[in-house]
From TrEMBL:
Leader sequence segment: 1-24
SMART domains hit by this protein: YceI
Name this protein carries in UniProt: Lipid/polyisoprenoid-binding YceI-like domain-containing protein
Domain of life from the UniProt record: Bacteria
């Protein structure tokens, strides 16, 4: 028994030493997604609604910025790594999915107007927002400007999203080819008819997008 314990202890020590050496040499497992355009397969991808979010940020009374998110995003991305400027993006964001840290504010954003009046923000059962690209222009090895039309609250206006490629590879859970992007833009909400409390609550709203797309 003593010999067996010594053998086990030696084996455990060797394993720990090996792990420590590999870790020190950068031998940790590689993440499935890597910023490597050669991993991107040409074709049509669908938004992964479980891992795609649109965050928004607005200033409150000049004191601080407040945040919220939209989820359950759907849509498609057509992409060819050999010709990234030919990419096409069409995404839909359900406004009714808006969430904030304040239950009262979340309710206010999708509350009907009082006594038949116009709502302060989006109102009850708001139509989803939709962004459809019209032009993609590469600005670097992993970045691009995506110009398109944003339809929200019954108004359509052009928007430019500064996008960055953040990873590609096979999802280890589903083995589905996946690509990731982040995007940023800012809009004036009054341009889409959402004017309540401007300028006390800022007209300018920053949008921060984190999106995953799965090849179908």
């Amino acid at each position: 028994m003593r010999i067996s314990k010594l053998v086990l202890a030696a084996a455990a020590g060797a394993a720990a030493l090996t792990f420590g050496t590999l870790h020190a040499q950068g031998g940790a497992p590689q993440l499935p997604g890597q910023v490597d355009a050669s991993r991107v397969e040409a074709g049509t991808y669908q938004v992964d609604p479980n891992h795609t979010l649109v965050g928004w940020r607005a200033n409150h009374f000049g004191f601080n910025d407040y945040f919220g998110i939209f989820g359950n995003v759907t849509g498609t991305l057509e992409i060819d790594p050999a010709n990234p400027n030919a990419a096409k993006l069409d995404v839909t964001v359900p406004i009714a999915s808006v969430v904030t840290a304040s239950a009262g504010l979340t309710d206010h954003l999708t509350r009907a107007g009082k006594d038949g009046a116009a709502p302060d923000f989006f109102g009850a059962d708001p139509a989803p927002a939709r962004f459809v690209s019209t032009k993609v222009e590469s600005t670097g090895g992993t970045t691009a400007n995506i110009t398109g039309n944003l339809t929200m609250n019954g108004v359509t206006k052009p928007v430019v999203i500064a996008a960055e490629f953040t990873g590609a590879g096979a999802n280890p859970m589903s083995q589905v080819k996946t690509v990731g992007f982040e995007g940023r833009t800012s809009i004036k909400r009054s341009d889409w008819g959402v004017k309540f409390a401007v300028p006390m609550v800022s007209d300018e709203v920053e949008l921060d997008i984190s999106a995953a797309f799965e090849k179908r």
